[in-house]
Amino acid sequence: MLKRMLKVASVTILAVIAVLAPTAVAVAEPVAPPAVSAVSDTTVDLGGVNLKSYCQYHGFDDVTLLPPKDVYSWRCHLDGEVYGIDMYDACWWQYRRPSRPDFYEFKDPYSWYCWI
Which domain of life is it from (predicted)? Predict the structure, then answer.
């Protein structure tokens, strides 16, 4: 009688496993990650950067664009010397808040903008 009860119990357990196994496998299958946007929904484009005003505010004569005239070619100049521009600082100065610089097109030196 005990053998029969064990046999019935094992058959019942196997039946439950057979019914639930496909569900467990379906849940365990990997799911493709959602598409990631280049710009977050919470990102705010603050606008461009006025490098001429930035340089003059910091005591330089003006701003100049050196060859090869890409986004990294901007310099402040004073008495014939040129000085690099910290675009993070320029964004902070322009918008009076922590912000980040970025550009739309590397070959377009006028494509700088700041965002938070």
Answer: Bacteria
Cβ atoms of 94 and 50 within 8 Å: the answer is yes
- Is residue 76 within a helix (H) or strand (E), and if so which, with residue range? strand 74-78
Helix, strand, coil shares of the chain, percent, nearest 5, are 40, 20, 40
Residue 28 to residue 32: CA distance in whole angstroms: 12
The predicted-structure confidence for 64-115, as pLDDT tens digits, reads as follows: 999 999 999 999 999 999 999 999 999 999 999 999 999 999 999 999 999 9
CB neighbours (10 Å) of residue 114? Answer: 23
